[in-house]
UniProtKB/TrEMBL annotation:
Cited Pfam families: MFS_1
Boundaries of every Major facilitator superfamily (MFS) profile domain copy: 8-454
Protein's name in the database: MFS transporter
Record-annotated membrane-spanning stretches: 9-30, 50-69, 78-97, 103-121, 133-151, 163-186, 198-215, 221-241, 261-282, 294-316, 328-346, 352-373, 394-412, 432-450
Length: 462
């Protein structure tokens, strides 16, 4: 079947992209609402954090099902299921007047996001012509990379008015996306009557839940952290064993036998941790160290997020015309400069310098992130593309949760209530150093992956 860029393809990407954007933007938008919500609901930091941690846990558990769901159900039915769940979750949060109800709404939203995220990339990889893959994947990455960066701005502006508006405005966007998707999403492949490997799903859920809870427990209880860590390891061992002995595995692990795919995926995971980690540290730095309010902190981070959004599809065009190496390494170069600048100035940085550092950081994100994912997915056969897409999207969400947990832990370990401002600056500097070291590891992994790229372009057009 010859692939063409049609109006319905663009509208399908728009509909699924808006849904994924809504799901991701709330992740970091909620961070700036925590002080307000803690006061209103009279709960601790550890409790309020579950609004994000619980959400990411649900997303991480649902996304591994994406390969099975794509083969078993039509794209439109998956879109309708995801939209319905997300809209129900938004309605609950829009009217929530206690913590339990708000958390329930967030968990339901997580189910919708878990279905929605892989859907967008599956449509692009399955229906877009080869010469447009980079550009359209760039647009897809605009959602997954820029939404976390826009979150603090979006949340910071609205929490000053009424935090319920964070959900109410997204509800309007979701209804709009629902109508577009129902009209535009088209099925181009036959569904298959396959069975779900429930044991593998439970095993991978235990791994993700255990790993995230282990990092979240380090500060309060080393014993609990070890217990959760053991659960995570056992879950991973069980998942690997079951996948290797199943005729219809949840995720075909043979994708990890491709060195270029695995190296690029590893670099991508670290890249996501950098994005979410910085989205956690910088709003805290601006509000605590620079003493700006949440709305001003959000506005200071807006230029960087906007530039990242603009560059994502442009860098995809560069991928189509020049290949992956140049745009990816340009982006990595920007991020090296940004994190080094933030590290050396962390103790005394004024707000405008934080803004400049974030602009450079998001320039790097716009150039590199989508192209890393596109390059990685180009390394698996057409039959294994859903598995590769599931791996990227699942581990991206897991990396987001992990990045937030680690950045939060490093900052919290440095903070001292007797000198909160100075100790927060110290903690931020430690975070920037950690992120810089992680970036160097990502650069090595990504360039090793790029050096091993193989030409698999024929698998896209079938």
């Amino acid at each position: 079947m010859e692939r063409k860029v049609s109006k319905k393809l663009y509208l399908s990407i728009l509909a699924t992209g808006l849904m994924a954007f809504c799901g991701i933007v709330i992740e970091t938008a909620m961070n700036v609402t925590f002080p307000t919500l803690m006061d209103q609901f009279n709960v601790t930091t550890g409790t309020i954090q579950w609004l994000t941690t619980g959400y990411l846990l649900i997303v991480s558990v649902i996304i591994p099902l994406s390969g099975f769901l794509k083969r078993r159900f039509t794209l439109k039915s998956l879109f309708l299921a995801a939209s319905t769940l997300f809209i129900i979750g938004l309605i609950i949060c829009s009217f929530a007047n206690n913590f339990s109800l708000l958390l329930a709404g967030r968990l339901i939203q997580g189910m919708g996001t878990g279905i929605a995220l892989p859907l967008m990339f599956n449509i692009i990889l399955e229906q877009a012509p080869l010469q447009k893959i980079g550009f359209l994947m760039g647009i897809g990455t605009l959602v997954t990379a820029v939404a976390p960066a826009l979150g603090p701005t979006y949340g910071g502006l609205l929490v000053a008015v009424n935090w319920h508006l964070i959900f109410i405005l997204l509800l309007i966007v979701m209804v709009f996306a629902l109508f577009i998707g129902v009209y535009a999403i088209t099925q181009v492949t036959e569904t298959e009557k396959i069975k779900l490997d429930i044991i593998s799903w439970i095993s991978v859920a235990l791994f993700f839940a255990g790993a995230i809870l282990a990092f979240n427990s380090i500060e309060s209880s080393i014993t609990n952290a070890v217990i959760f860590g053991v659960i995570a390891i056992l879950g991973l061992i069980a998942f690997t064993w079951k996948s290797n002995h199943s005729t219809s595995p949840l995720v075909n692990l043979s994708i990890f036998k491709v060195p270029s795919f695995s190296l690029l995926l590893f670099g991508f995971i670290i890249f996501q941790m950098l994005i979410v980690g910085s989205a956690f540290v910088l709003p805290n730095y601006l509000q605590i160290v620079n003493q700006v309010n949440s709305a001003a902190a959000g506005l200071l981070l807006l230029p960087g997020a906007a530039l990242g959004a603009v560059l994502a599809p442009i860098s995809g065009k560069l991928y189509d015309n020049l290949g992956p190496r140049k745009p990816i390494n340009i982006g990595l170069g920007f991020q090296v400069v940004a994190l080094f600048l933030l590290f050396i100035t962390a103790m005394t940085a004024p707000a405008w310098l934080i803004m400049v550092g974030y602009i450079l950081f998001m320039l790097g994100t716009g150039f590199a992130m989508g192209n890393i994912m596109t390059s990685g997915l180009s390394q698996v056969t057409k039959e294994l593309t859903p598995d590769g897409n599931a791996a990227f999207n699942t581990l991206q969400q897991f990396a987001g949760a992990l990045g937030t947990a680690i950045a939060s832990l490093v900052l919290a370990l440095s903070q001292d209530k007797s000198d909160y401002l100075h100790s927060t600056a110290v903690g931020a500097q430690h975070d920037f150093l950690m992120l810089f070291i992680m970036l160097i590891v990502a650069i090595i992994s990504i360039n090793m992956g790029l050096s091993k790229l193989r030409d698999f372009s024929e698998k896209i057009d079938g």
